[in-house]
Design goal:
By secondary structure, the protein is α/β, with parallel strands linked by helices. The chain has 14 helices and eight strands.
């Protein structure tokens, strides 16, 4: 890893450390940290590895002192488990096991609602339970760390229950929508591919632990009926370059496609999918910073039925390409893009065609 990459990652980690302290940004920040940790930690220098673990420690501190939502703790749990597989120092492993133990207690309580006190009982409405002390940071002396029992390494009950449902249920399920499914793995997708072949809509956001194998199997199984696919901030899109091409070939009847916030998605991978998706009417690539004008040209050639497009925050796409797209898309009715990228002539033309330009 060269110095520029190291500098970029250090800045990104500093940004994530700030974001985990903000409630609205906590879950996306933890998902991004999980992806970076899995893909970049092993090749990082020792100082950068320390930065990674500092942010992991910050996540544990924030969970202990601020957030009680089981969903937040589930996100932290997946992060801590991943970190445990990457570190070798016994002291750091011991601290991570402590983090995992704390997170599993909260997640288990969420799975066992009868164990929780009823509303307005246990703590007076005017008081709040005192927050537990924050965990020691990774790298600190391990003397106070407690090693949990071997049961703390078992899979989360929610993940196991979900796999059981996918494997045993044979209902006519039409739609699946998972947002930050940090425990979702290939086993789940393979079970869905086996038992839910009539699926018409699949939406995944920030899925960190699935690979192209599971998505390809699912795409093959539901190729005749899937009309909507969303892979939002799913780093598997960036890790496996030929994934989108294969999905496009299998899912030729897609009408809605959302690939938003895959920041490293490149033109060639995106275009390799579009060439097979001639029935798209709704396309979202918001926040895909790696796309350029070439993707707009491909959209014009391959997706002549598009009615709604979101290309907001695609920094590589210029105003001239957007103007050409607006002028040459006969079915277009709505485009979301920065105001500065809509030239006056394109605005006038759009208004005459009753195209809604949303900034």
């Amino acid at each position: 890893m060269d110095s520029e990459d190291e500098q970029y990652l250090k800045q990104r980690l500093d940004e994530l450390q700030r974001d985990v302290s903000k409630k609205q940004k906590f879950e996306p920040a933890v998902a991004a940290l999980t992806s970076l940790l899995r893909d970049r930690y092993s090749s990082a220098s020792l100082p950068l590895r320390k930065s990674y673990l500092t942010v992991v420690s910050r996540v544990a501190t924030v969970l202990k002192t601020r957030y009680t939502s089981p969903g937040f703790w589930a996100a932290g749990l997946a992060l801590f488990r991943l970190a445990l597989t990457l570190v070798s120092d016994p002291a750091k492993k011991s601290l991570l096991l402590g983090y995992i133990s704390d997170a599993e207690k909260v997640v288990r309580q969420d799975d066992e609602p009868n164990a929780l006190p009823p509303p307005n009982q246990g703590w007076p409405s005017s008081a709040s339970p005192p927050p537990p002390p924050p965990p020691p940071p990774l790298g600190a002396a391990p003397s106070a760390a407690k090693t949990p029992s071997s049961s703390s390494a078992s899979p989360a009950p929610r993940s196991t229950s979900l796999l059981r449902f996918f494997s045993q249920c044979h209902c006519n399920l039409q739609k699946l929508d998972f947002r930050l499914p940090l425990d979702l793995k290939n086993d789940h997708l393979l079970a869905v591919a086996t038992n839910f072949r009539s699926l018409s809509s699949l939406r995944l956001q920030s899925c960190c632990l699935v690979s192209g194998e599971g998505l390809k199997a699912l795409g093959t199984a539901v190729n005749s009926g899937l009309e909507e696919l969303a892979l939002i901030n799913c780093d598997v899109v960036e890790r496996e370059p030929r994934l989108l091409s294969t999905l496009g070939q299998n899912l030729k009847k897609l009408r809605k496609l959302d690939l938003s916030y895959n920041e490293m998605l490149l033109d060639k991978d995106f275009m390799s999918m579009l060439v097979s998706c001639n029935y798209l009417v709704d396309l979202k690539v918001r926040g895909c910073k790696g796309l350029t004008n070439a993707s707009i040209i491909s959209m014009l050639k391959s997706c002549k039925r598009l009615e709604s497009v979101d290309i907001m925050h695609c920094h590589g796409i210029q105003a001239e390409a957007i103007e050409s797209f607006v002028l040459n898309s006969p079915q277009l009715r709505r485009v979301q893009v920065e105001q500065c990228k809509i030239l006056d002539f394109a605005k006038t033309w759009a208004s005459h065609k009753f195209v809604e330009a949303v900034a």
